Amino acid sequence: MGLIKTNRKLNLLKIIYAVLLFIFSIDTFAKQPEMLLGGIIKGDASEKQICLVFTGDEHADGANVIMEMLERNKIKGTFFLTGNFYRNHPAITRDLQDDGHYLGPHSDKHLLYTDWQNRDSTLVSKDIFEKDLNDNYLAMKNSGVNIELPHYFMPPYEWYNMEISNWAKAMGVQIVNFTPGTSSNADYTTPDMNNYRSSETIYNNILAYEEENGLNGFLLLIHIGTDPKRTDKLYNRLDDLIKELSNRGYLFKRINELIPLTPQDLQDELFKQYINKSLTNIYKETLLRNGRVTVDSIALDERKKSIEFHTNLSLSYLPIRDETVQLIYDSVRFHLPLEYKKFRIAVFSDQQEISHLVPNFFRKKQIDKNRLIAYKVNTPLVMRVSDPSDIPTKGLQNNHLAVWQSHGWHYEQKLARWEWQRARIFQTVEDLYTQSYVVPFLVPMLENAGANVLLPRERDYNRMEIIVDNDPGIGKSTYKEHNGKESWKESAVDGFAHSKQVYLNGENPFRMGTIRQIQSINRGEVSLAEWIPVIPEKGKYGVYVSYQTVKNSANNALYSVYHAGGKTDFKVNQQMGGGTWIYLGEFQFEVEKGHKVTLSNKSKSANRVITADAVKIGGGMGNIARMPHPDGFEVENTKSSDAQMVKTVIPKINYSPEVSGYPRYTEGARYWMQWAGVPDSVYNRSEGKNDYTDDFASRGVWVNWLAGGSSVLPKEEGLNIPLDLAFAFHTDAGTFWGDTIVGTLGIYMTQFNNGLFENGKSRWASRDLSELIMEEITSDIIREFEPEWTRRHLWNRSYAEARVPNVPTMLLELLSHQNFADMRYGLDPTFRFVVSRSIYKGMLKFLATQYNRPYVIQPLPVKDFHAHFLSDTKVVLSWLPTEDPVETSATPTQYIVYTRVNGEGFDNGVIAKSNSFKTSIRKGDIYSFKIVAVNDGGKSFPSEILSVCRSHNTLDEVLIVNGFTRLSAPFSFKTSSDSIAGFMGSVDNGVPYIADHHFIGQMHEFRRVIPWMDDDASGFGDSNANYETTAIAGNTFDYPYLHGLAFAEAGYSFISSSASAVENGYVRLTDYAIVDWILGKQKEGVIARGANPPKYKTFSNEAMWAITDFCHQGGNILVSGAFVGTDLWDNPLATEEDRKWAMETLKYRWRNNNGAVTGQVKAVPSPFPAINGYYTYYNTLNSESYVVENPDAIEPADEGAFTILRYSENNLSAGVLYLGEKYKTCILGFPVESINGQDNRNKLIKQITDAFNSESIIN
What is the DSSP string of 797-836? Predict the structure, then answer.
């Protein structure tokens, strides 16, 4: 960073200095500072400016307090720290750097340079001094510190002489020292010292000195940490001191602001400072966060008329666009002297000219062809043949993606136990939390766009697992063969066998058995292999197939899955993916219904080889047994990195191999890989000594194993799958106090293999991928949820998961699961849906650029879904598309209507060309429907499920209205003092989407001040672990079916509708005799701090008008919901008109929002003898139904209304029934669908309808 030693540059510097001197006037330069023994001890005394200086060596106890106080008061400090400090406290160093403070040296080993009694006596040689100071700078550099100009240095012990100052100046370093007079430097003293000064004394001395002499230009010294014997810490008074001095008119400056460069200093460095400030402003305005861009060097070539500016890495962290490049260049050129303004300038960061950092997707000019990586794939790994819609032509067709969620349950050798890789905090753990994005949202979106997605962890949540294989094994399922024109025979290739309950290290089940093979035919009698499972219980199961890739393998092996919804066909390209589990999809299976999987040898291409191996149904439990390695284990120094390993010897204990005891979906990738036939050279990198590092280190190697042999890695062995990208999802990013968001960080890696992948293409494609995903995530979050969401940096760093894959790769740190403000959003299902859609969009746009093809965004789920009877055997379904306000291409062009009969599985669907569909039904059967929107980009997520039934009886028709649309994080709070905060499931556990698998237990540590001590004692946010293997039921959007079962049992025909269709006038309540309005856990509220408007009100104004009209025209209505009263009474957004409507129309009033906790309801004497019995509802978290923690207690609000149900534990009113002359109402403070058992739901609804049919009790 020194001068370029040429006369030309010296001349340039003189010109630059002269021009700047003319432009900015003499006031730009600081007044002459006060000196002592060659060191600066005071800045410009004409201004009320102070520099807060903090020194540190062995103690750092005040670091967090100091950083918090400086941040709170928006002040930048100056920190002089020893090499010991930088090495021992990398996290503090990083935080100080990120917060924009000045960091300088304080000697490496905190040597005493001069004698205490004879200051002129130097105690170190010049060589020792120079080595010590250089080692201090090296420690700063190794800690990632941007070494800023000018180079200021505060000597150890703040004790030096003229000789030391001269030695420092010869190294280009200026000594500074604290300004004497206030005794602030005595804050290190302890009570046993003669010179001890209490913090109160020091504090008063500072203020007294200020009153008498002023503190203009002072360097006020405070130690960043002190001996534990000093319990009275001055830094605890820092906030008071800052506020008091601010009130007295003082400004606080960094050392290089208080003592800027003078004409005697290096003149070119002054010019750099102006450029630095300009670029730093661009940085701050772009990222809306603190940071600092510095120019490290300037290279002038007058012959070529060019100037190069090389900056620190901060500039490369920005989202660079063509416009950003222009802004940066204009800013730099502005500061050039007139004669150099027409020179060609180039700005570099991360060793790249900044225009190179613009992703191809955003370029308006020539793109970088070397980062375009596209493979010609005619036949993908798996293709769903039974899908009624066409293959997406503008989506992710023929693309193969490797995606994974972070971490997982793993065996910790040093503790000889299974444990999570991260701490239990805020009711989840990162090992499961990232999965709540990847599995239910991101992967389906990618697959809906046409991609094949491969994961290194189990994706099926079902704890059951059925293996069906041609080899004898565990279980009672059956494998059969039917020979036609060709016959099945045994292959010479090894295959899968499930011959063991437990697998030990290195054992590969895909090398323990045999496979079957057959020739394909294009005409004649087909041959079949059949896998017939014994299904242990009804449910949804993931289906995997396996085979081996051999010479002349078929690329279109036809598999069929026979499930509760019918038969679904797939074509599998057996030329890739042999010897592992290949996922087909999730299907509904029932017990003893003849479900099976078949493989046919029929093909368009004859004489190809089709192989058959095991079929896996369900996720299962972990079956990989682990134990400490007999030679000891290895411990790494830092997590998620390639840190140096330290070998440790284990005690002499007789360990036995043990399995995890957890569902396989909870386990890390290392164990899935072994079960999935991956070679142990991929997942067993430490040879059994460290499962933690093996887990994250194996994932990139797994990517290369999948791609080996394909056009991605043609020279490597592997599964021949041409992967287009890899993506690692993490949420590990630190904490902030209060409502401060940590935000989103992206990581990629180019500085490996000369910046090239093995196929010769540029690794900068990874930056393109990362930038597109970062842009989508942050812009969508800011728009949809939180305007203050933080876009952090885009790092080019050597993380194994970003470096090892030989495909474009991003490692995402979405947010901080350790930070309360982040997790108030992160636990909300709608947030996770939006973020996952953002990631999908980023990948889509990246691959569209790679393949030079147009793209279309898949639609959003439809809205206003409703059904009408056309006749006894005909029904019409109608809905509206949902517009995407950002992506105009996300418009549906057609739809798929899926049908389910009597609660069995959904069929493969049929195409609807418009937003209306007519279909036939049979009397007595219950039909359920869901709608998926389709366009050239793929398919949307499904709509809510509506159900209909035409009864054989002639009773009235019932309209079931689904008003339960809420999805929500658990209730969260923070006190006004911010001393306690957290999530409280006892108030409201929130509402998951379908089901959550990341919840581990309730939070129990609410005190913010409690620090992390260990992953077993994680401090603020620490949570229980009693639910971490339990699925938590949420909103299934399928409640018209449960209610409809009861009405059908009572002899009623029923139809159903979304509440929005009623509110928007597409459905008239008055067409029906009875309305059943489902509210579930609907409740108005905001997300997190409430940056956006509230959602999920129980009764909108439009709903109230429709219900009022319905009642006044003689209709009978049943309303049930846990917040049916609370939302209208104990809600600051509710109005008096809301409450008046509830009392005058529905005839109930609210009593409290904690009606009961035991989940028991009993019928009580009333004028309605039809109402009788005892009922229970789901009052604890479970996998069957969403939990009702706090149902409403409600009471009659009319003389014709009576309590019909009470909560058993306290006799509070749980249900009110009104029988008026014109209409009847029944309002329940708990949801009908939450009642345990369908028989009980049937019973209660039958009693209510009987009451509706009884005579009015109003005279």
Answer: ---HHHHS-SS-EEEEE-S-TT-HHHHHHHT-HHHHHHHH
SS3 helix, strand, coil % of the chain, rounded to 5? 25, 25, 45
Per-residue pLDDT, 630:
81
Q: In what order do the strands lie in the sheet with 744-748?
A: 452-454, 400-405, 723-730, 809-813, 744-748, 791-796
For residue 135 the two structure tokens come to: 């080692």
Residue 266 has pLDDT above 50, yes or no: no
| Pairing between β-strand 1193-1196 and β-strand 1201-1207 as defined by DSSP bridges | unpaired
| Whole-structure pTM value | 0.80
Please provide residue 1200's backbone torsions phi and psi, each rounded to the nearest 5 degrees: -95, 5
The DSSP 8-state label assigned to residue 184 in this structure reads G
Q: Closest Cα partner for 1177 from 995, 1009, 1033? A: 1033
> In this model, does residue 971 exceed pLDDT 50?
yes
What is the rounded distance in angstroms from the CA atom of residue 960 to the CA atom of residue 1034? 20
In sign, the C-alpha dihedral spanning 415, 421, 426, 427 is: negative
How far is it, in rounded angstroms, from Cα 64 to Cα 238? 12
Interatomic CA distance for residues 63 and 70, integer angstroms: 11
Phi and psi angles of residue 1070, each rounded to the nearest 5 degrees, phi first: -70, -5
The pLDDT, as a whole number, for residue 974 is 94
* 3-class DSSP assignment, residue 15: helix
pLDDT for the residue numbered 274:
76
**AA letter at 261:** L
For residues 366, 371, 376, 380, the Cα torsion angle rounded to the nearest 10 degrees is -130
Which tokens is 599 given? Answer: 């493989």
- Residue 272's pLDDT is 78
Strands 452-454 and 400-405, bridge-based pairing: parallel
| Residue 365: count of CB within 10 angstroms of its CB | 7
Q: Number of helices and strands (H, E) in the chain?
A: 27, 59
Among 472-476, 544-548, 693-697, the minimum mean pLDDT is found in: 472-476
The confidence score (pLDDT) of residue 81 equals 97
Q: Say yes or no to pLDDT of 1068 above 60.
A: yes
Number of residues that make up the chain: 1259
Rounded CA-CA distance 112/795 in Å is: 39
Q: What is the pLDDT of residue 1228?
A: 99
Selection from 122, 186, 114, 196 nearest residue 156 by Cα: 114
Contact (CB, 8 A) for 987 and 1189: yes
Q: How many whole angstroms separate alpha carbon 50 and alpha carbon 158?
A: 18
- Number of C-beta neighbours around residue 808 at 10 A: 28
**74/62 Cα distance (integer angstroms):** 18
Closest CA to 1001 of 426, 608, 486: 426
Gyration radius from the chain CA atoms = 35
Q: Parallel, antiparallel, or unpaired: how do β-strands 102-105 and 78-81 relate?
A: parallel
What pairs with residue 972 in β-bridges? Answer: 983
Output the CA angle 977-982-986, nearest 5 degrees.
120
Task: Tell me the residue type at 641.
Answer: S
Q: Which domains does the chain have, with CATH numbers?
A: 7-11+263-358 (3.30.300), 31-258 (3.20.20.370), 390-459+642-711+721-850 (3.40.630.40), 466-617 (2.60.120.260), 856-943 (2.60.40.10), 951-966+1035-1252 (3.40.50.880)
Contact 1094, 976 (CB under 8 A): no
Closest CA to 596 of 570, 619, 566: 566
1177: Cβ contacts below 8 Å, ≥ 6 apart: 1159, 1161, 1188, 1191, 1230, 1231, 1234, 1235, 1236
Mean per-residue pLDDT for 959-967?
99
Decide if 1192 contacts 1227 (C-beta within 8 A): no
Question: Which amino acid, residue 162?
Answer: M
The Cβ-side half-sphere exposure at 607, using a 13 Å CA radius, reads 0
Instruction: Express each pLDDT in 108-160 by its tens digit.
Output: 999 999 999 999 999 999 999 999 999 999 999 899 887 765 679 999 999 99
**What whole-number distance in Å separates Cα of residue 192 and Cα of residue 501?**
67
